[in-house]
């Protein structure tokens, strides 16, 4: 449940539809699905398995897999920690925008029109304040260890979110212009296929499944020995991809409805305009067209999305925090405040240099760091870790694994296919 909470978040509703809209729609969707099942799923099993075997923070877990190379494994763990902290620093900015769009209509209804306007208008001050509020929420959850409660909540709310999505998809498809968006999303035009598209789809798959930065390793370490790892990973991957797919059915048509109503979304060269913020300007416009129910639908939507983002952000903060607690013997309370504060500082630097830094940090972490560190995990599981030990670990929750199709394919697959596919990142620009 927690791993699903980590996976479902802004990556599904903001990252995936934006990438799909800028990369030819249906072709991106197809390559993305291929990447999730051919690459991300096997790696998710690998990361969860290392974590559960180690039953400790990521640095110690990695060292248990390769005890002869303690220093090297420490560095790999550190690289994951730095990457995940950078990811959280931009994630908190985007999640802050959700808070803004939630609060704006409420302020407006209360007569605070200029505050509502400020909350909805892109600007450094507004981005900073909203980011700090979101980070504060994340810190509070991780600090008090109420993550348990939040996860239970979020799994109960997940079906509500899905249902709301379905209702919104039906609504948007009744609007003029929507079918052009749906066509872009579902009818492939292979002229868009390019090496860059493949790399973007891979990065998006890694991002959406929270891979390559030790997040799933930490969550693996919290799993019980009776959990069936390949099955758990499959459930997480299916749920996450399902949510992304439905979000695409909503967002792409919504963009074209906005275009139909006079909003310019693509420039002359066909590139998506203001792609980072587009989703958040298209959705409130859609809620406005719904009349009085629009406000309720909008509030419900943003509340659910903020909870989904929170179950993701806590999984990120948990990585450096678990390392600091176990490796440096810090108290949870102290570790959370120091690390949370440090991430706020990085995030503030990005806020004040948004144009120069935001896109770069996103690409550097998701398209490079995640696949590269993920490749190191695959190499570890495939080449360093003894096959029998891997088998032993997976067998604990899946006694019949040895005779399964999974075990006939997966070990070789992680050993050869995954690293080769990920090498693409180095050669394709
Ligand atoms: N997967 C989450 C999403 O789709 C975000 C996330 C949580 C994440 N933990 C992560 C992304 C670790 C990269 C690395 O919103």
Automatic annotation (TrEMBL):
User: What keywords is this UniProt entry annotated with?
Assistant: Membrane, Transmembrane, Transmembrane helix, Transport
Name the source's superkingdom.
Bacteria
**Entries under CDD domains matching the protein:** SLC6sbd_Tyt1-Like
Annotated membrane-spanning segments are 25-50, 71-92, 128-146, 158-185, 197-222, 234-258, 293-314, 335-354, 366-385, 405-428
Membrane topology qualifier:
Multi-pass membrane protein
Keyword Transport listed: yes
Per the UniProt entry, the signal peptide is none
Subcellular compartments: Membrane
Q: Which InterPro entries match?
A: Na/ntran_symport, SNS_sf, YocR/YhdH-like
**Would I find Heme among this entry's keywords?**
no
**What are the GO cellular component annotations?**
membrane
Give one Pfam family: SNF
Descriptive protein name: Transporter
